[in-house]
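Lecture notes, unit on protein representations.

Consider one protein chain, 137 amino acids long.
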Amino acid sequence: MSTENNAQDPLEFMRSMWGKMGFSLPGMVTPTLDVDELDKRIADMKAVENWLKMNLSSLQMATQGLEMQRATIATMQAMSKIASEGGSTPEAAQPNPFASGMWPWNLMQGAADASKAAQAAPAPAPAPTKSSRSKDK
């Protein structure tokens, strides 16, 4: 009678099939109450976790390396294209990506140019004063 019940119980059927293969069905085993066995399982799981983290880090580094390689190649191709055209590309089509970060330099260059222009311009003649007008009359 007990053999008939085992055939009808799908969990027991699966357990018997997996048992014949030489390893137990994962998650279908009764939990252990042995602390040493639990410690061993925890250590195994942490080892697997660390291995997976290491693989994830390696994968992320490889991806970042490929992204950097792609950006470098794209930059070199763009520079090559500009050089082959002789630099005749209009500025409106290719705006300077560093222009917004160069405002301090542009400000200082503008001040230096204004200072040179002021020094190069002749000094204006002094305006006539009231006392010089009265002497002329």
